[in-house]
Amino acid sequence: MMNYTNNKISNQSKTQYYSKTIVPPSQITKGVCGNFRKVNCNDIVLIKQHYLELLKFNRVVDLNETNCVSADIIDVDAIDENDNSFESVDQFPLFSIVKDIKTLSLKSFENTTTTTTTNEILSKEVLDHRPYIDSDYLQKDLLVVTSDSGVLSVLSWSNVKHQFLSVHFEQISPSGSNFKYIGEKIYISPCNRLVVVSAILNNLLLFTTSTNRVNSKLLNNRTTINIKETVDKITPKDVLILSVAFSYQPNNNDIIYLLIHFQNNSTKKFGLVKFQYSLSTNTLEFQLHNYQFEKQYDIIQFNNNNNNSSKKTSTTSLMVSTNLSEIILVKNDTLEIIEKIYTSVGYGAFLTSYLVTDNSEQILLSNDRGNIYRIDSRSLAIKAYDKNNGLPMLPLSMILNLGHYYYYLIGDLSDSIIIRYNSDDSFQPVIVNSNYSCITDFEVLKNDINTQILCCCNSSLIKEDSLKLIEKSISIELLDQIQVNNTNLLWTLDCATEKLIVISCLNSTKIYRLRHQDDWLDISENSPFILNIYTVYACIFQNYGIIVQVTPNKIIVLKDNKITDQWSVSSNSVIVSATSSSNSQLLVSLSKPNHFLYFEIENQKLIEKSSYPLNTEISSIYVSPIASLEHVVIIGTYQHEILIINYRAMKIISRYSKLSSIPHSIILNQLSNSHIDSGDQMYHLIVAQRDGYLLKWDISLSQLISDNEFTLISIPYQKRISNSQIQLVASNQQGIIVISPEKVYYLTSRKAHTILTKISDLPSNITHSSLLSSKNHIKPTFLFIGPTIGLSIVKLDFSKKINVSPQLIKSMDSRLISPIKILNIESMNLLLILFEKYLTIVDPKTLQKLNCLELPKFAKAISIYFWEERNLIILSGNDCRNTDRGLLLIYSFHLDENNSELLKEEQIIHLQSKIYSFITIGSNYILLSTLREIKLLNLKDSQSTPLINQVNQLSAPIILMRKSSDRILLGSWNKGIEIYQYKQQSPQQQQQQQQNQNINNNNNDEDNDEDVMIVDQNQNLQNINNNNNSLLILKREERTMTSNLMESIFLNNDRWASLDRFGNMNIKDYSEHDIIQDEEASLILLDSIGNFSYKEAFMKILPYDQNNGNKTFLMAGVLGSLVILSTLTLKIHYDSLLTLQIQLSQFSLTRPLLLNDHSVYRSELEKTTGILDGDLISQFLYLNLQNQLILVTDKYHQYMKLLNSNNYSNRDNMNIDMDSENQIQVNKLKIVQTLIDLIEKLNDKL
């Protein structure tokens, strides 16, 4: 081996990177339930290592339920008449790894008498959040969280900012410390008066809680409990704290007992120690300890300590062994075991979680095999439940109580599931939440409409579902389709006993009646509607049972299927658009002359109230269905302007005249997650233009209901989604359906930022939509129409924005289970999926199986590779007959009788050792690694036995090989990466070499002239006979001493990225160093140009997208994350986003919630450099404009450079009138929008 020299290249590359999580992790590591958003709601908080998700469980309310809660405390928003469902309220990165999380409820003792020994005021970090904390936050449940930040944090949900905010924190260790036990467990007493947290080994920290509202701390009287000093001062070894529980004295609210279960690491004995804490004096007193326990137990914590019918009373504690083999009762005053019960269940499995039912009579426990056990607290009888009792049998990590006999089972790596306990003593699965964690392989599937990620996951309940399709979209369920030709517009009229569907066609109108989902009837011929012309607008005034139809030349009023009134336009005039309020007001716009009319319905008659002339034709008109806003009409005109008019006073209260195109559709909507700032409710004015742009203004309710004029912001939010006109359809106040000729989207918001999500599986050429039913607001039913697709009835699922579709292959072939690897061959438009026993060819567009090849019975394939130069498929694996031997299976493509691609076996190559990795080089060579050596296979003639030549002896196997146009990357687990340059002979040299080979073959000289490659002293891989015409030369030029290597990829020919199993990325570059031509080779050590810590291992990196030379790479993690790595070629983009990242890491509403140091979190092995954190930068999008302007103001001159270099935005189309406002303020607005554009452009990759 060579002697390494330390020749460093300081490479200041112009290209930096932007990393963003586009699909959050799926694996759940912690979870709690509580009333976090408001009193008496049903919320779940799930921790996914470094992400937090807040869910709302919408439970079917059965009024016949036993012990049903009274109507006044039911969460009305959560009632779902059709089925139970989850709704994701919020999900965001924590920039910390959570260790434990618990629910703290302080409402039970607001009038506390607890005293405090200190008079500390709240920290600045907490005071910054106080203006946004809900006034009733002490009546709601709080989150207590520990993490690698070294901080114990207390969080409260803010309905003002729509996010969790910190209301208290305690520093328990230095930031970024890896002390194993610090914060590992949190214990909260059933009375919520004490909080105990794991501290450094042998220690616990104890806090009392307080509800004093006057700037005092929620946690007080910090006390350290040293267990080792208490139970064994002599033993040098530490004491391991296993669990903590609390007990009480009857009728004494001042004294709380702490029962601490521990193990002495010297004697290996288990014990209990008891402390007494007085709330009135804030004193802790040791009482006694007991060493008579033989194994580890969990102490079951009851919320009710006065259940007289239970063996578990206030004077005893119940303990269950971690292997579920024993249940014991311990007397609290003496810590003696007074009863021990041996069970016959649970051997070989381990207890993972437990909960006590609401009435404290039952205890439910889960183990790592998927069983659930029920212990009767009265008799201590234990019963086991398995798949015969309705359980899915997934490895369980925790079980949560959702109330009313609903339980949430959270799998270890598996899908989580909600079950219901039935009266027949069985469990019924209710909701399966598909988990896509532990992604072992993936491929990107693209077409003109969708981008989907097909993944192999090790997380499903059944093997057939391990292949999952992930798409960032709203999922749908197609209920029915009706053939209707030349459709254009439609409206749903909700009558008392039925629904009428009015469909406007090219030159006619059709009427359908719907009484049930499948009861569709065309009643056009028997209806009083005008049918021989298209309909401009239709509506129903439900309070009066009156229907109105608007056509280009007439308006009719219908009651009880009869026309009660009609109104016709004057000669040459045409009705171009119309809208209505919820309270019998109708507005129509007319041309020739241009004006709009305001009508009211009185006594089933259409009464014209007023007319408002305009100097241009109206392109769109809108009135909000909200009663308080029914006097406001919003109009778009052909002069590229928006008018907001109080039509009762006939007064324009706002005007915007700077549009780049004609406004085609207008809606005023709250959107689902709009927040409230300064007590004023916000609405979003959404305008869809005919050039495909979507614009948004935020307008307060006070501005809309006032008669005073106001000014719309000069630079609104703007996003282009099409090159043609787009249509808007409201979905109550939850969101908006956005229809373009190419795709259909759902527009909603998170905090102040609008989110546009594609609706999956809808055909193109949809022209209009209508809400059919919204009683289930999570899964409403819509009608969609188009000139070629007719009428489709579709149920949309708004509960989540990530659509995960399992069971794709199961529907194709029942033999196809346990997918191992996926390969997308874009050049052939084929998808190959490797299973345990089969190799399948799949159409990547339809995901339908084309052909299936059964593998040899002795072969166990583990990887799949496409040899592009020869159109061959290579499978590598092991020989089942001798697992120490390796195999290469080589297949070629052929067409079958149906003209479909078929794989044909060409060759099987047996090797004496396992294959760890391989690559092909050119059209002749396979370079592979076994346990101790690298081999070169020459496959010039696929019908003959390949020449197998030893290249180099190895101290460790090469686990991955990658190649670029002239370089090869070899990576080992513990030795890091070595980079080689390679070159092949010219065609003339190859021809001469072949002639020499033929001569040698004729002379039967078997060994002397083989192309045996070795590494010489100069690191050249050469012919053993020093032939100048060597087929292949390799020269090592770089080595990175990286341990725990997991994955690597060439970012370009001179640059590569590597990832270790902890998620630490390192990028290096060696541009302009053509070492292959050096006479003397030396090892070049390079400075890193990129370092970043993801805190998640990634199994694979793929080139994902290339736009104007800017490459994007996609990574899939073991926790289920999908992360993009995008290049930033413009230095001003990198500098501006880096400045913003630093600001956001310090800003009160965007800094890490658990008070971690962001730079420390992203720097594990080396200081972060060259890679921006898109997860943090994207938080800028969710701030309101006021906060965004604050950040821009702080670095105004730096951001002006970005504004001046902005050549990708269409802001110039707005024709800003510089005389209308201050130049600097305009620039600030431009900077905000430019930053938003840049961030959205980088984020919008799926």
Structural notes for this entry:
Residues 986-1009 are annotated as: Disordered. It holds the Pfam family Beta-prop_RSE1_1st. The protein is mainly β and 1246 residues long. It has a domain at 16-20 and 1094-1207 and 1218-1245. 7% of the residues lie in helices and 48% in strands. The chain contains ten helices and 90 strands. Strands 56-57-58-59-34-62-61-60 form an eight-stranded mixed sheet, with no helix packed on it. Strands 87-88-89-2-90 form a five-stranded mixed sheet. Helix 5 (1131-1144) runs antiparallel to helix 9 (1196-1204), helix 8 (1185-1194) crosses helix 10 and helix 9 packs across helix 10. The radius of gyration is 35 Å and the shape is globular. The relative contact order is 0.09. The model is unreliable at 1-12, 62-82, 111-119, 304-309, 674-678, 1003-1031, 1072-1083 and 1208-1220 (pLDDT under 50).
Which key phrases capture this entry?
1246 residues; mainly beta; 7% helix; globular; disordered N terminus; WD40/YVTN_repeat-like_dom_sf; RSE1/DDB1/CPSF1 first beta-propeller domain-containing protein; WD40_repeat_dom_sf; Beta-prop_RSE1/DDB1/CPSF1_1st
Short précis:
Residues 986-1009 are annotated as: Disordered. The protein is mainly β and 1246 residues long.
Task: Determine the fraction of residues in helical runs and give it as a percent range.
Answer: under 10%
Largest sheet: 8 strands, mixed
Portion of residues in beta strands equals over 45%
Overall spatial form: globular
- Tally of contiguous helical segments: 10
Distance between the termini: 46 Å
Task: Tally the beta strands.
Answer: 90
Mean pLDDT: 81
Low-confidence regions: 1-12, 62-82, 111-119, 304-309, 674-678, 1003-1031, 1072-1083, 1208-1220
Radius of gyration: 35 Å
Q: Give the neighbour order of strands across the main sheet.
A: 56-57-58-59-34-62-61-60
Q: Which class do the helix and strand fractions yield?
A: mainly beta
